[in-house]
Amino acid sequence: MSQRTPVNRLSIYLIKADYSEHRDILKNPDDLKSKALNGIGILYFGESHAFEPSWIRKFFGTSLGKDLDLFNASSKAVLLTEVAVSSNERRIFAIPFGYGWTFLNPGTWEERFGLKVTLNAVDPSHLRRIHKKNMSSVPKDASEQLSREGVAADFGIDIEQDLIQSVTGKPKDGKFGKTVTGKDSLSLSVKVNLFDIKDFLKDCYERFASDDYKEDFGWIDQISEIKNPNTIKRLNDEMIDNIKRDRLEKIWMAVPELVDWSDVLGFSFRNKKVDLREDIILSQFLQDLPESEKSNLDHSIFNRHIYCFSSSSEELKYQWKAYNCLYCEIHDDKKEKTYLLSNGKWYEVAKEFAKRVDREYQHLRDSRASVYLPSYTHRNEKEYNQKTAKGDVSFYCMDGDLIPHGGGYSKIEFCDLFTRSKEIIHVKQYGGSAVLSHLFSQGVVSGELLVADSDFRKKVNDKLPNSHKIGKPNVKLNPSDYHIIFAIISSSAKPLEIPFFSKVSLRNAKRRLETFGYKVSLQKINAE
């Protein structure tokens, strides 16, 4: 009777084709022991050490004495095996055991290898878990698991703003076990051992190379985070070279998080409350650098900070790395790819998706505004909104006039300015993705409640003067009579340009509001 192959829990990495030497794949190859496995590959391993668990002394102190034979042992190994994946191509795979993955040099493995294998291997209706990052505002990581198998829609995925980091599901083919998880690595429990591993790895590669997943999961390629250190360095080098050459059309600076602009005294590039700037402008940052640093921009970009001082306390309120305040877009026409730097991380965006988003944004930006908004010469948004309403009776200021409302909405700001002509205007100082995406989200929440909730309409009406009231709250509102305007204050002399992820958020906000029947516009307020 033949012995059955036991089930083994495996994690599999596909090494990039650029790396053919094991010494380049491993971090410290000279510190490792190795054992050649004829016809299979080489197992690299380190020495195992037994050590006393930390909880013995931390929790029990000396109460247990010294004669307790309780030990942990660490084991690390990684198998590197070369597989003929086609008649003319061979690829190296890495299979770590224990903490063996720590032996691998970051950037040597294919990103999203496991994810693509999984998407091609699973039944689209038998997904169990998805780990995603939402890019609509401050990036949010979420891991969602279903109580039973389901489709991608059951996870509430936003296909334009969710970056999928890993997927777990039930494979269509039993050779991949009962459950498979894919991210950069492929993780699964299968009846595979050393003697049939190469055949199994070839099957994995075939699924990695296949585009079949695009039929059900094509949207997953629209946005991906770049983790390869070599690619990140190349993009950083290109960005810094563009800055040195004064090619700043697609590079700018903005505050990377939500700030209370009413309490902003100014910004400094030197951690001193002198020569404060009203905003973060890349050209001013470069201008304020000491002469000794202007020829070494790499150091300044990665090591200098930007400081924000409070107007109420005159103390330092926020500080960020200059690099985290940079936004950059790089287009690679040869590879048909677009790369984005946002809040200190690089992302790759599918070229056609980027084109669609940019095209819709430019059309919205270049459309003629329906209302005149004066230039910004004020200390903060609130002062601007109040003086705009005071100078023109057609405007009514609702900035900061929060409306308590039940459910998950808590207190809602209906808008900043409301006109007799039924323009609902949301005003915001220019900022990074988090700032602007928050602005668009506020507009959607306010617009949806105005249409759907008579109680909310009553609360809005109670705050409006007779000249601006929206009609009887219990009568269904006609959204086509209203115009929602997102107005962004910018000191740039160029046409308004916002981060890519904010363009996606604006695009989605516009679609949702137009579904209700609203007109939607984007308008620039010039800061003088």
Provide an overview of this structure.
InterPro entries: CHP04141. Pfam families: DUF6119. This is Sporadically distributed protein, TIGR04141 family. With 528 residues, the protein is an alpha+beta fold. It folds into 3 domains: 8-221, no CATH class; 229-361, no CATH class; 367-526, no CATH class. Helices cover 27% and strands 31% of the residues. A 10-stranded antiparallel sheet has the order 2-3-6-7-1-12-11-10-8-9. Strands 13-20-19-18-14 form a 5-stranded antiparallel sheet. Strands 21-24-25-26-27 form a 5-stranded mixed sheet, with helices on both faces. Strand 11 (180-182) and strand 12 (186-190) form a beta hairpin. The longest helix has 20 residues, at 433-452. The mean pLDDT is 88.
Mean pLDDT comes to 88
Give the strand order, joined by hyphens, for the main sheet: 2-3-6-7-1-12-11-10-8-9
Number of helices: 14
Cα-to-Cα separation, first versus last residue: 87 Å
Pfam families: DUF6119 (PF19614)
Protein name: Sporadically distributed protein, TIGR04141 family
Organism: Candidatus Abyssobacteria bacterium SURF_17
InterPro entries: CHP04141
